[in-house]
């Protein structure tokens, strides 16, 4: 089993490295070929950090004949698809809005080819990269994220040394690399180090006497609550009804956390951190809330982040129950470290989900309803148990 796991992880890691190399090492010498390459039939996509109240912005350009391009823009509360004009220049592309268009982000911007797969958007002091999109590669990347994170979780469960490498050494050693990319949105940086901190704490709980301390058990639950709270604040800051409904769902997730004092490191060979009181219903309600959060605020990351959630939920339900929080920390921290190390891999392989104002509101409502349903079950059971203990609840 160990050899199979190592082989699986090595294969996934090698595939990631090959993909990264193929994108990162594109030769600028092919620019002259790119300038004459016909754009009709091509799809290009890009993501950028928005202003407060916008979340992350996602753009999709589908180039057609007659110098027409379908431009999609998605952000916190904005969903538009408009037909605009494009013109190829000696070094790049010009995209211009038409009368009445609401998407004017490309007006006056410089869109310059970096290589055959990438265009650089520049306007004043703002800039981001737009990537040529391949459907097969995008779906392949989604599967790579899913199976790569499942393999990472299993590796951290079975090999003690890997936890110290991933959660103690790399987050410090990779700071120069992460700082070199244009990741400026505060939420992403806070999220990165909060989940890495959680993974580090869980490592100590599993393998040291820290796991016997009450403050550490509380800290494990607090990390989860803080992780949710960060997203709740983001949702409330957006101000849209869908975001507010989802934020309330997140608050319900926090107040229904229970049984943290019973967290322990089991006596198995893996020394897994177990939270016995973590129910399947709560996990599913949380997953719905988190998927909706990313869907509303980071449309360019929604599909990949859905895979991150599934990568934690499947092992916790089918490999070893009670390990969901441990798996959630490992897979989420791993996904953020991967994104910060190779943002172009996420950004060039976005698989967009259907999205409009009605779907967003429906998603926010679904998150609120399922978390409210769990809260009802949770507090009803708590009320019943309290009355039984007090001897005031009828038993017949």
What does it look like?
By secondary structure, the protein is α+β, with helices and mostly antiparallel strands. It is built from 13 helices and 10 strands. It has helices spanning 2-24, 31-35, 135-158, 160-173, 175-180, 186-207, 214-238, 241-255, 280-297, 302-319, 324-341, 343-348, 357-390; strands at residues 43-49, 56-63, 68-75, 78-88, 92-96, 110-115, 118-123, 126-132, 264-265, 273-274. Strands 1-2-3-4-5-6-7-8 form an 8-stranded antiparallel barrel. Strands 9-10 form a two-stranded antiparallel sheet. Strand 7 and strand 8 form a beta hairpin. Helix 6 crosses helix 11 (324-341) and helix 7 packs parallel to helix 9.
